[in-house]
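Collaborator request, handled under Task 6.
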Amino acid sequence: TTECKNMRAAASSLDLHDVSVTLPSQVSDNLYLRTVGELCEALLTPYISFNQDNVWKNIHLQGQQQQLSFNIKVHPEGKQLSMVVKSQSGEVEFKNVRIPTQFYGLLPLNIKDSQTTNIMQKLTSQKAPSTCAIEKSSVRTFDNVEYQYPLNDCEHVIFKDCSSASRVEVTGKVTSSSKTVKVTIDGQKYELEIPQRGQATVKVNGQRKNVVSQEDFQSRHQSVQQQDEFAEQEHNYYNDKNTFITSFEDGVYTIKSVLYGLSVNCDYERIEVQTYQHILRNRACGLCGDLNGEKVADVKSANECIMSSPKLAAYSYMIMDSSCQGIPSQDVQTYQQESQKCIKKETVITQIQKVFGVPSPVIKKHLVEEKNNKICISKQPVNVCASSSNPKEVEQMKVQYFCVSKDSEGSKLRRMAEMGEMLFQAKSYPSSYERQFAQPVQC
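Structure tokens returned to the collaborator:
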């Protein structure tokens, strides 16, 4: 849930920062730095209180190296901060400075995720990486489609690369006493069996790992992880150096692949899958949907059938055997009928050439010629070929002309006709003569 995510984010955020900065004399003497300091002072005047001398005015003491220390305290909601800046000459305190709304979400610093991930989420309005969550018999897909689907003791495909060269897969099942999550990445199999109470079982490629507490691991003379053990709250790498397993104090376990941007977070109550849309867009399948940014037909069946509800499509990702419950009896008939009917999404390709094709070289213009020392123009525009093409097919037609004197008015009409403009007033002139014209049909 959103409340749970916010609570975990708050618990793993750093709201107090101590930063020390040493400025060489060349920098502290810089005129631009002095200007920036004075500008900051002007902008933040309502929030500033000084002790002793003004830090900004003394930071540019000639030829001296400057030591600055910053004590920054960020409000838990990240909407304001307070800061104390100390130097050899004194200190200045900023109280309750409002953080611009554009930077909400970046502070306080969240150490649960990398700062790159935090910035990416801010830039994409929390849409990257995409998140799918399964909790309390409810599934919320990567594309924010929510439907009711309680996991049972059959194994389910939660998320999978459904291309011909499948690289990642996440499955899960729930029993009365535990939840099992399996993640396969490039052939490496990671398995977590999380009981309702007690310690989780960690397996890699079928081999069970010995769980070592964080205190015991850090108390060793050399804190080096052994391949047959799982150290709590540490990054545990095994055969694949791009993938690690870790745990947190609140009982959450994480399997993370840096190579594919995949993170699977789970405890006994919930499973959360995070991944970047650009890596597996439109190639994903499973309970979490197709990861294409569209809500329409988000959860299709394993055979890519569009069913009347996401729940029915989700049944196709149930790996049934004789020992598990299978599809609920009240849904079996409807599921079988819709599976046989199997309505599929059809992509109709638009011929871009028809929509954005090259303009036809056939254009309409008024014809212009001189006769008896007058300017004569056709009363109606006719088809002509552009200068870069020649007629492929022509048809004979009769064209009427009107003639005007070679004065300013006549010259104006001539220029307009030669530029391809329509002479709507041409019909008001009397016809002077008529002649045959070979009009191009195609150029």
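The cover message to the collaborator said: "The longest helix spans residues 31-43. The two ends are 65 Å apart (CA to CA). Please let us know whether this matches your experimental observations."
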